[in-house]
Design goal:
Layout (H helix, E strand, L loop, with lengths): L1 H5 L5 H26 L5 H21 L11 H6 L1 H20 L5 H4 L3 H12 L6 H20 L6 H27 L4 H22 L3 H8 L14 H29 L2 H22 L6 H25 L4 H16 L9
Helix pairs in contact: 2-12, 2-13, 3-10, 3-12, 5-9, 5-10, 7-9, 8-14, 13-14, 13-15, 14-15
């Protein structure tokens, strides 16, 4: 169609800027989360503050008319997004619990089954039959996961691994729900991000009280532990507030970056940047939090990255015979879900 023919490819500077921002933001999210979770015992309240800050920034931006479209709030739309919000709350909560119980350098290993779970979910729900080469790539990633869990060489938290596996399974389910959710908001990724942040914050508030974080929240906010601090040490409350502000702002900004990245980057760029992010996060965990990178852990990360890159290459090759427009778009949508959330933070 004419719009596609006339559209100019993004400049190298723009692509580089988007990728670099995503890398820096995602790494900052993981490190800030780990920094706060090391000194607090309220991962759900921490997540609630992040979502609340991001929601408030959406409202402020909408008031100032700096968003590309106007935000709205409709109860019928909220009802249609219940599955998406439920998965988002569970996925982000389990990701925070994973990061609380495992080292920052082990986080990628603990959540290493996202790709195999995504392929399995696509097969079971969407009846998308994977090729033999896709199955081999998933097998390599799975091998990397078990290499890290069984051969790490240092004591690892089994509950952290459990939350990592559960988080991976829920992240994979997003690939099924996200299309339906976009239909509910008339295809607007910005509206979906706004509703997801706001509704997730609303759902999390009673949930964090049900799991018993209330007393720890009161203890943190009223500075009960500050009398035990060493002179010059940052209090848990200050750490919590700074961490919440940093991750809340980054989560909001990544909502816009994701929209831009859809237009200017490719699936391969996403997967390569994800691979770089995994390696850098391991070194940052070793440098900032003094994590130990054993031979087993390094081997695990390398195998998972190799399997992920193999999957990306295979998907790229398999998309070539089809129509360039439809196949590349379809491959992009699926790969974007595979790579993100990783995020993340939260993945957002």
């Amino acid at each position: 169609m004419a719009p596609h023919k006339d559209a100019k490819p993004a400049s190298k500077a723009l692509v580089t800027g988007v990728v670099v921002f995503y890398l820096v933001a995602a790494l900052s999210m993981v490190m800030a989360n780990k920094w706060v979770l090391n000194v607090t015992s309220i991962p759900l309240f921490f997540l609630w503050t992040q979502l609340t800050i991001a929601s408030l920034l959406f409202v402020i931006s909408d008031t100032l008319r700096i968003l590309p479209e106007q935000l709205a709030f409709d109860l019928e739309t909220c009802k249609g997004l219940i599955p998406m919000v439920g998965l988002n709350v569970l996925g982000l909560s389990f990701s925070n619990y994973t990061l609380k119980y495992v080292d920052a350098s082990f986080y990628q290993v603990a959540r290493g089954l996202v790709l195999p779970f995504t392929v399995f979910t696509s097969f079971m729900v969407l009846h998308s039959r994977p090729s033999l080469r896709i199955l081999v790539a998933c097998g390599v990633v799975t091998l990397g996961f078990f290499t890290g869990v069984l051969l790490d060489g240092t004591p690892i938290s089994l509950i952290g691994v459990f939350f990592g596996v559960a988080s991976s399974a829920i992240t994979a389910s997003h690939s099924v729900v996200i299309k339906q959710s976009l239909n509910v908001v008339n295809g607007s990724a910005l509206a979906l991000s706004w509703y997801t942040n706001l509704l997730s914050a609303i759902v999390l508030l009673p949930l964090l009280l049900l799991v018993g974080e209330g007393p720890d929240v009161v203890k943190l906010l009223f500075g009960v532990d500050e009398l035990l601090l060493k002179p010059g040490a940052m209090s848990p409350l200050r750490t919590f507030l700074w961490g919440s502000l940093i991750t809340g702002v980054l989560g909001f900004m990544m909502s816009f970056a994701s929209l831009l990245s859809i237009k200017v980057t490719s699936p391969i760029t996403h997967m390569v940047s994800s691979a770089v992010r995994g390696v850098v996060s391991s070194f940052l965990g070793m440098w900032i939090f003094h994590d130990v990178i054993t031979g087993g852990r390094a081997s695990s990360i390398a195998i998972i990255l190799f399997g992920s890159l193999m999957y990306t290459w295979v998907k790229h090759q398999e998309s070539q015979p089809a129509s360039n427009l439809s196949s590349s778009k379809g491959a992009y949508d699926r790969l974007k879900i595979d790579v993100e959330s990783m995020a993340e933070s939260k993945p957002r």
